[in-house]
Specification:
Length: 105
């Protein structure tokens, strides 16, 4: 769990106050709720656990981005043009960014 301290400084003519808010973000919760299915895959896969749309980047192990596009929940994502191998699927949603291993067979 990561803690962020946000400092808000508000002043007016009558009072001067400083407010410190603690904001907690648990990246493991985002990571645990998103999965790729089927994985390994031959032709296509879906991203399970996102609501609405997300930005998807699929990179090879040399960090070259091979696919970059906006996706929607329950959308089939084709990887039929990719050679067999291991890839990293980076999924950016409104609640955070997750990286998952994708195996193309």
């Amino acid at each position: 769990m990561t803690q962020f301290n946000i400092l808000v400084n508000s002043t007016d003519t009558l009072t001067s106050k400083i407010i410190i808010m603690n904001v907690f973000f648990n990246p493991m919760a985002v990571n645990a709720s998103i999965s790729l299915y089927p994985n390994p895959t031959a032709d296509y896969f879906r991203i399970i656990g996102i609501e609405g749309s997300a930005l998807l980047n699929i990179s090879d192990l040399k960090c070259r981005v091979l696919i970059k596009r906006q996706i929607n929940c329950n959308e089939n994502i084709s990887v039929s043009d990719l050679p067999n191998g291991v890839y990293i699927a980076k999924i950016k949603t409104s609640t955070g960014t997750v990286e998952k291993k994708l195996v193309k067979k």
